[in-house]
Design brief:
Number of helices: 15
Distance between the termini: 34 Å
Shape: globular
Structural class: alpha/beta
Radius of gyration: 21 Å
Strand content: 5-15%
Number of strands: 9
Length: 297
């Protein structure tokens, strides 16, 4: 979009007062701090077409009017995005003048969000949005203590989140695939329990042996076995809650040296304990989002 010289001058006079962050930095902040909020300040038609998963819509034209009702605590970390970064910078500057102390503008806005392949939803979102509703997992070499704590908190919350997603669903919805050609809700629930049992065992192996090589398994074959097709998904919900109770207790006891211990995955190569925890924090949330999408469709 071509902007007028006056508008550009207006923006450029204010951007030095605003902290701009990348999409990656935004995602890391949102993942490590449950209080952080992502605000979409674009117009209604832009929001309706597609928007970032987890974002709250408050258009640039009304943000000063509505923000104190939406976010009363003025020390809340706020990450704003617009189409390209100009409107969010102006909005961030205004919020700072209103007393908000942790406001950031996403550099490049919605354009950068799409280019980064970050999670999106809405009619104009890419087809992959159904398959990866919270985006793809990106493994990092290391994580901070705050990030590790946030991953453990996500893992701890997953049984209750899965129960809430399943609550009120019909038997017919249990047999509905989350995307064309994808697993059914029934298969997804049983898979999460299967997979997170593997997580628990893999972490225990890594903590008790030197660089153990773990076993992979055929996930698709497992979800087509008789126990998946005949046993209620609620059984696997109970199983997940039981496994996570012990898993989270173990994770909360670990030292930085424990998190740095490794295992050898046949497909992914060497992984540290903290990388395994990060992956499964994403994995559980990823599949819970699939079920929520079926429920609200």
């Amino acid at each position: 979009m071509d902007h007028s010289p006056g508008f550009l001058a207006h923006v450029l006079a204010r951007t030095p007062r605003v902290t701009e962050v990348s999409v990656t930095e935004t995602q890391r902040a949102l993942g490590s701090n449950p209080n952080a909020q992502l605000l979409d300040v674009r117009e209604d038609r832009e929001w309706d077409a597609a928007h970032a998963v987890g974002a709250t819509h408050v258009a640039r034209g009304v943000i000063e009017r509505d923000i104190e009702k939406l976010v009363p605590a003025k020390d809340t970390p706020l990450y704003l995005y617009c189409g390209g970064g100009f409107r969010s910078a102006l909005a961030a500057d205004s919020l700072q003048q209103m007393g908000y102390s942790n406001v950031y503008s996403v550099d490049g806005g919605w354009r950068s969000w799409q280019e980064a392949g970050a999670p999106m939803e809405g009619p104009a979102a890419p087809a992959d949005a159904l398959r990866f509703p919270i985006g793809k997992h990106v493994r990092q070499d290391t994580y901070t203590a705050d990030e590790r704590a946030a991953f453990i908190a996500r893992v701890a919350a997953q049984p209750a989140a899965l129960a809430a997603a399943l609550s009120g669903m019909t038997e017919a919805q249990h047999e509905q695939p989350y995307r064309p050609g994808g697993w059914t809700v029934r298969q997804v629930v049983h898979h999460v329990a299967d997979s997170h049992m593997h997580m628990y065992i893999r972490i225990k192996l890594a903590l008790s042996a030197t660089e153990p090589t773990i076993n992979a398994y055929d996930q698709d074959a497992w979800v087509h076995m008789a126990d998946v097709s005949t046993v209620s998904p609620m059984v696997s919900l109970s199983l997940l809650a039981t496994v996570h109770e012990r898993l989270v207790a173990a994770l909360r006891s670990l030292t930085p040296a424990d998190f740095a211990r490794g295992l050898i995955h046949p497909d992914n190569g060497r992984m540290t304990v903290e990388q395994v925890v990060a992956m499964y924090a994403w994995h559980g949330d990823h599949h819970i989002a699939h079920i929520r999408n079926v429920k609200t469709a």
